[in-house]
Amino acid sequence: MIKIKLLLLICCLISTPIFSAEKELEKEATLFDQTFNWQVMAGFSAIYNPFILTDVKQEEPRDFLAFSLLVDFYYKGFFLQSNDRRVEGLFQGGELGYQLLDKNDWALDIIAKPYLPGFMPDDIIKSKNKNIPSIEGLKDRNIGFGIGLRYSKYYDDAIFSFDLATLRPSTGRGLLADLYYSHLILYRNWDIYLGAGLTLYSDSIIDYYVGIDHDEVTPTRARYKARSGFRSQLEIFARHPISKSWTFNAGITQSYYSNAISNSPIVNKHNFTQIMLGAVYVF
Q1: Of 43, 114, 238, 282, which cross-links 14 as Cys (Cβ 3.0–4.6 Å)?
Q2: Measured distance CA(266)–CA(220) in Å, rounded
Q3: pLDDT tens per residue, range 50-77
């Protein structure tokens, strides 16, 4: 069953506690100089990740729990890595790529990752065991898997990244640009990451996910042809070592969606909040 948060079982954001905060930034900038590096982790979290879809809510205890097996792997420029500075990494998964250029303070990668979650309306209705007219009769929306280029700029205590990617759902294709800035603050034994992001979507992407085709129109769901739009984000993510192998993680993300998204008949909000509390074990 695919829900908006189903991708949490891919490599999620929670990362290793065995490096200090200073070494973590240095490690990310120089990691590809290493011939081989890998790590396996297991995590569990309590999450608040409300559906963006109208009349679809978190209700059962299982909707608030997430368990994951996390793998980071690096070999001669090839990598599979969890995203440890964005709370949404818990819901959208890891990143597969190859590093094209690695300079002292910047890098350029080819990257492939799921940028947008999909959903199956029939499965959602079945899991809720009740009628949900707002999504009943909709076609499935597939995972928005994208391939593109990422530019990363490294600072002493911060990282800026810019992704330009093409997405190809089951019908059509579209472009997105994703910008994100993460700043590290050290406080006692806490690593605190303050983040801000902006994602721009082409009209074909938004129309695929929240548009309403002619054959999906009902008396309570009008035809909707979406334009291009954006999502902006502010985020706080923190981690604290519990022991040599365990780390506590917590994060909150506040997102704002443009009118092109929120005006859809199947979307009920401009603002969207995600909260995560969890722990990770490093093998």
Answers
A1: 43
A2: 10
A3: 888 988 888 777 778 888 777 888 888 8
